[in-house]
Amino acid sequence: MVDILHRVGVENSSPEKVYDALTTVEGLVGWWTDGTTGRSVGRSGSTGVGEVIEFRFPPGGFDMEVVEQTPSKRVAWKVVDGPEEWVGTTIDWELRQDGDYTIVMFKHQGWKEPVEFMHHCSTKWATYLMSLKSLVETGSGAPAPRDVHIAFPD
Amino acid sequence: MVDILHRVGVENSSPEKVYDALTTVEGLVGWWTDGTTGRSVGRSGSTGVGEVIEFRFPPGGFDMEVVEQTPSKRVAWKVVDGPEEWVGTTIDWELRQDGDYTIVMFKHQGWKEPVEFMHHCSTKWATYLMSLKSLVETGSGAPAPRDVHIAFPD
């Protein structure tokens, strides 16, 4: 088992604001992908434990089941559909305030092997975390299909 | 043992050009840090196996021993001085051409524990790989102290 780990600090924010960007379709659309829909939530609605969020990108997508939402502290998703390497992996977000920064600790855990696609996803996650940081700090992120390209296809 | 893995594709380049950016002080200054010096090489000179490169940043730095240089294919460094968590770890670069892209496979291996600093370094490496990509593609990177900030201090 190998993991993708990242950390960013969101300036002049709060754990509440970052939590909102991770648990509402409106927030997720702002930093990850335009193609975000919740099967049981509207575009501006909040996600909830047990619900499945569908994230779609030009090359494909992922369905994530929300497995934990602890307000302003932790969000966890389990991948229930998508690329073979992703299915069964978990994505975990932990939030805390440290001075002027909201610290976001990110883990994409449970990869079976450190395949080339995992290297790609690690770098790509970093660019999406920077998009999340930018969204919360400035109101503007870089979600797909306006995302930062690191190779091709991505 | 846990690793940081990344991958970028450098467009309209060649493994030779990326290799040069990893094995000359002039190249390293262009994407990683202004504070790059080789104990036995000049600013425009090439690095060589067994030599130590000193990388300095506003918050500190690393001394790396070059352990492998296979032209246009692979570069490996071992950290011989720097933060405690880094000493003894290895940084490995593999290059290959795939269509219009030079694929850069990156590994920072040998971390003892997945500490918070490792999460930070993973994201920071991604931004420096994007700086390397930009340097080779456009002639302009974002080396320290003009680097992309992801938190504080970094």
Specify the helix fraction band of chain A: 25-40%
Assembly category: homodimer
Radius of gyration of chain A: 14 Å
Most residues in contact, chain pair and counts? A-B, 31 and 30 residues
Largest sheet of chain A: 7 strands, antiparallel
Which whole number gives the mean pLDDT of chain A? 94
Please report the total strand number of chain A as a whole number.
Answer: 7
Strand content bin of chain A: 35-45%
Shape of chain A: globular
The string of secondary-structure elements of chain A, in order, is EHHEEEEEEH
Unreliable runs of chain A: none
**Head-to-tail CA distance between termini of chain A:** 24 Å
Structural commentary:
Two copies of one chain form a homodimer. With 154 residues, chain A is of the alpha+beta class. Chain A has helices spanning 15-23, 25-31, 116-138, and strands spanning 2-11, 35-38, 52-57, 60-70, 74-81, 90-98, 101-111. A seven-stranded antiparallel beta sheet of chain A has the order 1-7-6-5-4-3-2, with helices on one face. In chain A, α1 (15-23) crosses α2 (25-31). The longest helix of chain A has 23 residues, at 116-138. The interface between A and B is medium-sized, with 31 and 30 residues.
